[in-house]
Specification:
- The complex is a heterodimer of chains A (479) and B (288).
- Chain A contains 14 helices and 18 strands.
- Chain A is an alpha/beta fold and 479 residues long.
- Chain A has two domains: 260 residues, Aldehyde Dehydrogenase, Chain A, domain 1; 180 residues, Aldehyde Dehydrogenase, Chain A, domain 2 (3-Layer(aba) Sandwich).
- Chain A has a seven-stranded mixed beta sheet with strand order 13-14-15-12-11-16-17, sandwiched between helices. Chain A has a six-stranded mixed beta sheet with strand order 8-7-6-9-10-18, sandwiched between helices.
- Chain A is globular and about 65 Å long.
- The N and C termini of chain A lie far apart (52 Å).
- Chain B has one domain: Aldehyde Dehydrogenase, Chain A, domain 1, CATH 3.40.605.
- Chain B is 42% helix and 18% strand.
- In chain B, the strands form three sheets. In chain B, strands 7-6-5-8-9 form a five-stranded parallel beta sheet, sandwiched between helices. Chain B has a three-stranded antiparallel beta sheet with strand order 3-4-10.
- In chain B, strand 3 and strand 4 form a beta hairpin.
- The longest helix of chain B is centred in the middle third of the chain and has 21 residues.
- The chains are: A alpha/beta (479), B alpha/beta (288).
- Chains A and B meet through helix 8, strand 17 and strand 18 of A and strand 4, helix 9, strand 9, helix 10 and strand 10 of B.
- Strand 17 of chain A pairs parallel with strand 10 of chain B.
- Chain B: It holds the Pfam family Aldedh.
- Chain B: Keywords: Oxidoreductase.
- Chain B: InterPro entries: Ald_DH/histidinol_DH, Ald_DH_N, Aldehyde_DH_dom.
- Chain B: It comes from Acrocarpospora phusangensis.
Chain lengths: 479, 288
């Protein structure tokens, strides 16, 4: 491996305030909960003090959203579109600042926040801006639902915000959004962007806090629509809590995706796809290709190549432009990854990581590969949400599909083969919402994303993504 | 000369293409709208519900894997079989609902027409709900519809034939298989319908019919981990809420009951189909 001199991106492009309030009705206000700090997971330094929204604060935010809904939903779609286009442009203008802030707060490599997250965030606003005045052509009716309560995770903080807010606003809804407590900063900078765009007060409200704040958003009686991205465990709680309320719900939850490599696959490309599938964003990806299913005849050769490739990954400072693997987002997540990896060893799988220097401070976990994994092992069944790959083998396409579908999740899957008919045969049988063939972890605002089974319901992205934010054309309300 | 004594029919359950009695040995009295004895219907138990789910799961790969054209043909065949039993269904609806023979006949006609309407959707719903997505890169990107899996259906207590057809057809036409909890008060047309299904080239297990008490059976289905979706159209608000809570355990897709009475003669729209459809998006790079 070549030695590289450090090439850090400058922190100076972003000005982090010592403390942040909630964004309610177009203004930053104090929260009445106990403020908490957000830290840089790569150094454990405190970045800022964040207000916590109590149930009463959430209520004010919902009231502001309800008030704004009257005018926002009545505004011609073409005018709503222009606000969204404005927001998209400002995101592009401030994208370096947002990317650095995202990497500081989340721990992800600047290469990813700069080249993946931010371009997709801007693209998402552009995409849905264009729908705002064309809803009658989409086939889901044109009536917005009302106030959307949205709770998002920490793995793609600003991108998940875009996935939630852009379609909601395009369809004429107003929102109360709660970012994850470990990654609130880009959402609060987004609030500033809403101010710069002169977005009418109350159309977007951001309430920061932990699970309690999220529960207050979801359970607020004047919230008409709940959108959540996060763990299946919390998704279940939400599905239960909205029973009998008439609230519409979309849930984008966990995954345990199989990445199937057939013996005729282009191996070098497959190796790149496997690496991208599980080590992108430190594996903090709900659709990560965390189960590698490799055909027995090529398993040894593929694993050799994979291990060689992993030896070239650079772990370290997220702001360094050479960094491939950044920091784990939090101490709690690191503990969970360690616990599951230890369970993998205890249950008999063989653990391997490349030689890899771990920084003294911050939360880090080396890229890890488990071989000899059985379907019953926890590391083959539970979502680790970290840079840990479980390798299983198969002999026939039928076995590959059987093993791939042997999970309660169904978010994504990968297929690697040079034979198109085998690819389509496999894709047909995989019970997953997104199938990447001869590629992995591609995202686009025009492409619907979402799961089967316990990975949740509803789609985000594309024309399909409008359905979650429209009341439907028929009198019946369904979800 | 005495009048000939008629041979009565035993009304049983419909599971996996067969007509078993409830394993519990239970039955209950079904009466006409006027209160006269009509039959002893099987009163399905938890075990029957579980057997029905197994049958539906077993039938799912074949039915969802059949071509859309084939599914449309089979459902059209159901309409043909139903039409040929028009007199029998008319009589059963008159007995169950106390409506006139003319009205009952119209309801049977509407049920047949509803089946024909849904049969035509089999190879069209994917065209209106799928899409080729113009992503910003050299990728082929296609979204298509797929059935959710095994769906539990709580049939409406009213509309013993038209209501029943209107909840079953949209679920199965797209490739799902189902377990139906028939109207408790008027279950007999559902079992006669099962006889139609059994003679319509519909593979056994695609539709399974349980008669009995919805309050008792529906929660077992709502909490069953191998059921992927539940249509609560026929549930009371209280039952619907408790079933939705149970359904959260494995994140079933839930179709909630409507707030008011349903006009089964109205255009049903596509939402009963889309409630139990998944969208799968397949990516592939484009290049030489």
């Amino acid at each position: 491996m070549f030695e590289y001199a450090p090439a850090p991106e400058s922190r100076d492009v972003v000005d982090i305030k010592p403390s942040y309030g909630l964004f309610v009705n177009g203004e930053f206000v104090d929260g009445s909960g106990t403020a908490f700090k957000t830290i840089n997971p790569a150094s454990e330094e405190k970045l800022a003090e964040i207000a916590a929204a109590s149930a009463a604060d959430v209520d004010l935010a919902v009231q502001a959203a309800r008030k704004a809904f009257t005018t926002w939903s009545a505004m011609p779609g073409a005018e709503r579109a222009k606000y969204l286009f404005r927001i998209a442009r400002i995101i592009q203008e401030r994208s370096r600042e947002l990317a650095v802030l995202e990497s500081l707060d989340n721990g992800k490599p600047i290469r990813e926040s700069r080249d993946v997250d931010l371009p997709l965030v801007a693209a998402h606003f552009f995409y849905y801006a264009g729908w705002a005045d064309k809803l009658e052509y989409a086939g889901y009716g044109t009536r917005p639902i009302g106030v959307a309560g949205q709770v998002i995770p920490w793995n793609f903080p600003l991108l998940m915000l875009a996935w939630k807010i852009a379609p909601a606003l395009a369809c004429g809804n107003t929102v109360v959004l709660k970012p994850a407590e470990t990654t609130p900063l880009t959402a609060l900078l987004f609030a500033e962007i809403c101010q710069q765009a002169d977005l009418p007060p109350g159309v977007v409200n951001i309430v920061t806090g932990a699970g309690e704040t999220g529960a207050a958003v979801v359970n607020h009686p004047d919230v008409d629509k709940v959108a959540f991205t996060g763990s299946t465990e919390v998704g279940r709680l939400i599905a239960r809590s909205v029973a009998g309320t008439g609230k519409k719900v979309t849930l984008e939850l966990g995954g345990k995706a199989a990445n199937i490599v057939y013996e005729d696959a282009a191996l070098d490309q497959a190796v790149e796809g496997i690496v991208n599938g599980i080590f992108f964003n430190q594996g903090h990806v709900c659709c990560a290709g965390s189960r590698l299913l490799v055909q027995e005849s090529i398993a040894a050769e593929l694993l050799d190549s994979l291990k060689r490739r992993l030896g070239t990954l650079r772990l370290g400072d997220p702001l360094d432009k050479n960094t491939d693997i950044g920091a784990i987002n939090s101490a709690a997540q690191l503990a969970k990854i360690r616990e599951l990896s230890d369970a993998g060893e205890q249950e008999g799988a063989e653990r391997w990581s490349p030689a890899c220097a771990i920084p003294d401070r911050g939360f880090w976990f080396p890229p890890t590969v488990f071989t000899g994994v059985a379907q019953s092992h926890r590391i083959a069944r539970e979502e680790i949400f970290g840079p840990v790959l479980s390798v299983l083998t198969f002999r026939t396409p039928g076995e590959a599909v059987e093993k791939a579908n042997n999970t309660p999740f169904g978010l994504s899957a990968g297929v690697w083969t040079e034979k198109a008919s085998l690819m389509l045969w496999t894709a047909d049988r995989l019970r997953a919402g997104v199938v990447w063939s001869n590629t992995f972890n591609r995202f686009d605002p025009a492409s619907p994303f979402g799961g089967y089974k316990e990975s949740g319901y509803g789609r985000e992205g594309g024309r399909h993504g409008l359905e979650a934010y429209l009341a439907g054309s028929a009198p019946r309300e369904s979800r | 000369m005495s009048e000939r004594l008629s041979v009565r029919k035993t009304y049983k359950l419909f599971i996996g293409g067969a007509f078993p009695r409830s394993e519990s040995g239970r039955s209950y009295v079904v009466t006409s709208a006027k209160g006269e004895f009509l039959a002893n219907a099987s009163k399905a138990s938890r075990k029957d519900a579980r057997d029905a789910v197994s049958a539906a799961r077993k039938a799912f790969p074949g039915w969802s894997g059949a071509t859309a054209y084939n599914r449309g043909q089979v459902i059209y065949r159901v309409a043909e079989m139903l039409e040929s039993r028009r007199a029998q269904f008319t009589a059963e609806i008159v007995a169950a609902d106390g409506v006139s023979g003319k009205k009952a006949g119209e309801l049977v006609d509407a049920a047949v027409d509803r089946l024909v309407w849904y049969a035509g959707w089999s190879d069209k719903i994917g065209a209106i709900r799928g899409s080729a997505n113009p992503v910003a890169g050299p990728y082929f990107n296609l979204s298509s519809t797929e059935p959710t899996g095994v769906v539990a259906v709580v049939a409406p207590p009213s509309g013993p034939l038209l209501g029943l057809i209107s909840v079953i057809a949209p679920v199965i036409v797209t490739g799902n298989t189902c377990v139906v909890v028939a109207s408790e008060r008027a279950p007999l047309p559902s079992i006669t319908l099962a006889e139609v299904l059994a003679t319509s080239d519909l593979p056994g297990g695609v539709v399974n019919v349980l008669t009995g008490n919805a309050e008792e059976i529906a929660p077992w289905l709502a909490g069953h981990m191998d059921v992927n979706g539940i249509d609560l159209t026929g549930a009371t608000p209280e039952l619907a809420q408790s079933c939705e809570e149970l359904a959260a355990e494995n994140l079933k897709r839930v179709l909630r009951p409507e707030a008011g009475p349903i006009d089964w003669l109205a255009d049903p729209g596509t939402e009963r189909m889309t409630a139990f459809l998944e969208t799968k998006t397949v990516w592939h790079p484009i290049g030489v």
